[in-house]
Amino acid sequence: MKTVYQMQGYTLHLIPTKKFKTMTISLRLQSPLLKETTTLRTLLTFVLIAATKKYPSTKLLASYLDENYGARLSTNVATKGESQVINLYTSFVNDVYLPHQEHLLEKQLQLLSDLFFDPFVENDAFDQTIVELKKKELKERLQVNKDDKFSYSLDKLFEHMGRNQTLGIPSTGYEDKIDEIDGKMLYQYFLKCIKEDEKHIYVVGDVDETIVDVFQQYLKFPENHQDYPSAYTFKSQHPDVLEIIEKQDITQSKLNLGYQIDCDFISEQHYAFTVFNAIFGGFSQSRLFKVVREENSLCYYVSSSYDAFNGIMIVNAGIEAKDYHKTMDLIQQELKAIQDGQIEKRDIDVAKMMLENSLRKTSDEAGSMIALTYNRDITHKVESNDEYIEKLLNVSQEDIIKVAKQVRLDTIFFLTGKDFDENN
Amino acid sequence: MKTINYQTLQETLYFEEMDNGLKVYLLPKKGFSKTYGLFSTCFGSIDTTFVPIGENEMLKVPDGIAHFLEHKMFEMEDGDASDGFARLGASTNAFTSSSRTAYLFSTTTHEDECIELLLDFVQDIYLTEENVEKEKGIINQEIGMYDDDPDWRCYFGSIQNLYQNHPVKIDIAGTVDTVREIDKDTLEKCYHTFYHPSNMMLFVVGNIDPQKTMTLIRENQAKKHFEKENQIQRENVDEPQDVDQDELILNMDVVMPKLIVSMKINDILTEPSQKLKRELSMNLLLDLLFAKSSKLYEDWMRQGFINDSFSANFTQERNYSFLQIGGDTQEPEKLRDKIYELIESIDSFEIDEADFQRVQKKNIGILIGVFNSPESIANMFSRYYFEGIMIFDLIDCLASLSLDDVNQLKSLFDKKYLSTCMIKPKENGQ
């Protein structure tokens, strides 16, 4: 069965499967990640699903979703390297599990269409009350994010490491830019998105080709053939390692390290780096977990992650302030050991198996299936899961050592307690 | 082996009780790549005073011991169970709640070996004085992580406020001081008492053949020897009706204040079907009162003292029950007063039939969705199982509820048993 269809203004991707009791639809809108629009775009994700002309308040729209057996409707915004992506997500029960035929698919598609083409708008502006409420909500959300010390310290790492670059632009916008936005401005930006964003729609569930006609009937966007860049390799703009220490009144210190790696999602070395990261800190069998947590009891969590769309690696750990230098030394030692070729074949095999296992699992979860396919679609990578696994399995010890040698510490962000002494 | 068919959900469940008392449930999931095994014991952070197996006297153990034991179970004489799973290409984890400890694996390959490894590592214990001491540093960092988490502090503070004696008021991980007291001997006593097969349940869901899998488990269990099963005696908790304190204000290094109003429910049900009915009816009532589709949510939102973090939750466990209502707010005092007023005047809250049916449909749809995910099924199964409830009955029970069932619950609301927990930003110099 054909699974990819070029529709009017978007690409439709079908992922047919009978194993789920629900249907999932994800509409993804991609545009370049820019300082000037990141706040608008984030606020749009709040306002977009707050109301339609037919259901002109959160209460009425939520009641309608309740009636449709708790159909979900949500949005989020995330970066994909140089792009910023709005994900509009809906899932609802497959009619066969309900007492009566409810035609939930048609109802949800009509709703999606209304969100874009019959929104709650007057005089070319989103409803002022809703916009003001959502501005407040976004502002409070950004404040609460700061209170989560884990994500706050990670955001600060990106801010410092990516100063004046794409990496430094927050996917969720700037708190101090929210007040400048009004309903008219946001609606103008929304119209621009409808026209210019690159759009993909994914459907996961018990579907066949006939659904293409249903989409044809309910959803049409203006023709566009945009192809925005996403994955890239981060290049540092400072010659030395940048070390930032911030003090707050907290119990546990958060250590965040950002590394340059000279590789990203579309590089040949992507597969070797994926295996390297799994050996270094990607899983609880990895070196960092074994050494920093199990052998030295310094932390509860420590891990590395490969951000393939920004072409960087991150390490984070929650430690006691006094263990800052000791933890840094251990992390650097483990990296050096791999660079020097101290890797057991057994560790490579385990890492590959863990990667294969986590990839196979994605096919049991609609959201993960979509995320995986989407990454390939926006980078024009033609690759099946089996081909991907094949490439991982072919990574050699030499390949791993080679990418390990490309890893260079770039920025340290250490969030610590008030009594931390830098000279201890 | 017993087979149970569930028509509405189109699922078939297989069950067998092993000779040693272990209960095994299997749920094959067609088309899934993943297999998920969850091995649970009815031993959680509230089990702090009990008669150890083979003894006669009640023993009070240090707070946080169930969680500590969970950490140490992975250590085996010939290495770490996590490494064993990794060599099979699988991943593993564990968690401790107030009333349960559960160990799990998740895999897409070597399912049989994973099931055996899960049984083997949990059904054996390997402790040394040294490996017990070493774990304390890790657990203290875990405690430290929660200390800085304002959501957790507010959530947990609002529970602590309610109880004078009940051990639900102790933190699951204990405190740095109680963790220090934990030793090898006490851990072993807990282990032998609560990890007896008759106190445990294995649930495996995913890409499995039920006949073959059950045979494998049966043979694995037949090889092992356990002490004779005995009825575990836990100390009865003597908990007065009144709350422990009316208000707790925590000052933290945060920007956004938080508030949770909690209400202690003293009318504790024991009969499983009654408990289930209450829980599902209460969820409907809370949706009618507080969900996004409610009038009150819209009013409060427009007045600006709640945002989309606002929610209401009902908890009903082995021998305690409470409500929690709240979220992030710029005006915690105002939100508190509004919630108190509402609870005081709950009798005048009128529900019409159409609204009732709407939230009923919503809850049915959400429950059906749970059966998409092997993890969610297993975790939910285990949570309800020890309360005597089969999760496959939830949807039918929900569909059978009436508006009367919901209205009756209003009598549980009592201003006398309310308490407030607030997180406030530290002022300069504090």
From TrEMBL, chain A:
PANTHER family: INACTIVE METALLOPROTEASE YMFF-RELATED (PTHR11851:SF186), METALLOPROTEASE (PTHR11851). InterPro entries: Metalloenz_LuxS/M16 (IPR011249), MPP/UQCRC_Complex (IPR050361), Peptidase_M16_C (IPR007863). One of its GO terms (molecular function) is metal ion binding. Residues 184-355 form the Peptidase M16 C-terminal domain. NCBIfam families: YfmF_fam. This is Putative Zn-dependent peptidase. It comes from the Bacteria. It comes from Longibaculum muris.
Automatic annotation (TrEMBL), chain B:
InterPro entries: Metalloenz_LuxS/M16 (IPR011249), MPP/UQCRC_Complex (IPR050361), Pept_M16_N (IPR011765), Peptidase_M16_C (IPR007863). Residues 63-175 form the Peptidase M16 N-terminal domain. GO terms for molecular function: metal ion binding. Residues 182-362 form the Peptidase M16 C-terminal domain. This is Putative Zn-dependent peptidase. It comes from Longibaculum muris.
